[in-house]
Design brief:
Blueprint: H1 18-33, H2 43-46, E1 53-60, E2 63-72, H3 75-80, E3 92-102, E4 105-106, E5 115-120, E6 126-130, E7 141-142, E8 147-154, H4 157-161, E9 168-170
Parallel strand pairs: 2-3
Antiparallel strand pairs: 1-2, 1-9, 3-8, 4-7, 5-6, 5-8
Amino acid sequence: MIPSVAFGNPSRGLAAGPSALRILALALCAIWFVSGEGRAVSARENSQPRASLEKLEIVTASGTHAFSVEVMRTGPARERGLMFRRFLAPDRGMLFDFEVERPVMMWMKNTYLPLDMIFLDHSGRVVALAENTVPQSEKIIPSGAPAYGVLEVNAGTAARIGLKIGDFARHPMFAK
């Protein structure tokens, strides 16, 4: 049996009184602050537009591993990256498109999630790895080799899938 609850003044029956309106307002605020993944997000994070998800596969000796990634193709999007995010699903990531192969440098300023950074050349081959990066660190993380893109995934992903230098990623961004 589900208990019934009446709001407002009992002498007025079930009419919504000030208490009911306060409860409704609080409920609406709670819904507004919770994202589609069931987690609270800051107003700053919530105001940032999300890129649509694209499919990416990483091929290692242990098999092919599928991810859905947001692709950062503009300067402002690359600068923002995963900053201020508090959650990244295990099968998600962010792919940075630098448009040319060159040495790149990343950092974790305002990034709350520990990440693995996978540096990729123009063909999608893994040229460098930075595993278990430190959240909110301003330490520069260099590619060490020319990179066309960087894939950021949750820390521990590279180890979990057995990722090694020379493995590769499949995505339309990379030359065939």
